[in-house]
Write a structure and sequence with these properties.
Blueprint lengths: L33 E4 L5 H11 L6 H6 L7 E5 L2 E11 L6 E9 L8 H15 L4 E7 L3 H10 L2 E6 L9 E7 L6
C-alpha cells in the first residue's frame, strides 16, 4: 500500500473527476491528474501497477470483484493510469467500517503526492458510503506508506504477526472519520 487533497471538483462517489481548476499548473504537478471511479477497461492497467508494486500481487479476478465498489478509484493523466485505491464498506452493528484494501502508485509517479490524493478521495468515498471508521493493513517495514497513513490521520491499533504470506507482520491502522480533517 502506498499518497492532494480532495477537491470541490466532483463527487468521489459518482465516477466523476477532480478538476483542481483553482491550482496553478506550474506549481502543482498533479493539476492534470484526474481521480475517478474505475471502469472495466482500466483493470489491466491497474493489474500492471499492482504487479510492479507488490511482491504478492492480487490476481485480475480480485480487482474485478470490486468493480461496483464506489471506493475503487483510479488516478490518471492523459488516459494513463498512475495509481489506484480499492476500498469498501462493511456493516458493523450500526457503525459501518470502511476498509482500504489496496493502494498503489506506479513507481514513475511517486513522490508527487498522488498516493495522498487517491487515499483522501477514497476516504471521502467511504464517508459518503456510510463508513464511520476506516481500517487498513500495512507492512511494518513500509515506511513511506506508514508515513502517509499517519499524516492523513491513521493510528496504529495493533501489530498483526505474520500477516503476509512471506511472514512479515502488519500494522492494523484505524481512522475515525468523525475526527478526520480531510
Amino acid at each position: 500500500m502506498s499518497e492532494g487533497t480532495p477537491n470541490a471538483g466532483r463527487d468521489a462517489t459518482n465516477g466523476s473527476a477532480d478538476t483542481d481548476a483553482d491550482v496553478d499548473a506550474a506549481s502543482d504537478p498533479l493539476v492534470d491528474v484526474t481521480v475517478r471511479r474505475v471502469e472495466r477497461a482500466d483493470l489491466l492497467d491497474v493489474l500492471r501497477i499492482e504487479k510492479r508494486c507488490f511482491t504478492e500481487p492480487w490476481p485480475y479476478a480480485a480487482f474485478e470483484s470490486f468493480l461496483d465498489e464506489p471506493g475503487f478509484l483510479i488516478a490518471e493523466r492523459e488516459g494513463s493510469v498512475l495509481g489506484y485505491v480499492v476500498a469498501d464498506v462493511m456493516p458493523n452493528h450500526g457503525r459501518d467500517i470502511g476498509h482500504i484494501k489496496d493502494l498503489a502508485v506506479a513507481p514513475e509517479a511517486r513522490g508527487l503526492g498522488l498516493g495522498r490524493r487517491i487515499l483522501r478521495r477514497g476516504l471521502l468515498s467511504l464517508s459518503f458510503s456510510g463508513a464511520a471508521v476506516v481500517k487498513l493493513e500495512v507492512r511494518v517495514e513500509n515506511e513511506p506508506a506508514l508515513s502517509l497513513y499517519r499524516e492523513v490521520g491513521f493510528d496504529p491499533a495493533r501489530r498483526v504477526p505474520s500477516y503476509y504470506a512471506d511472514g512479515e507482520d502488519a500494522y492494523l491502522m484505524v481512522l475515525d472519520l468523525s475526527e478526520w480533517q480531510g
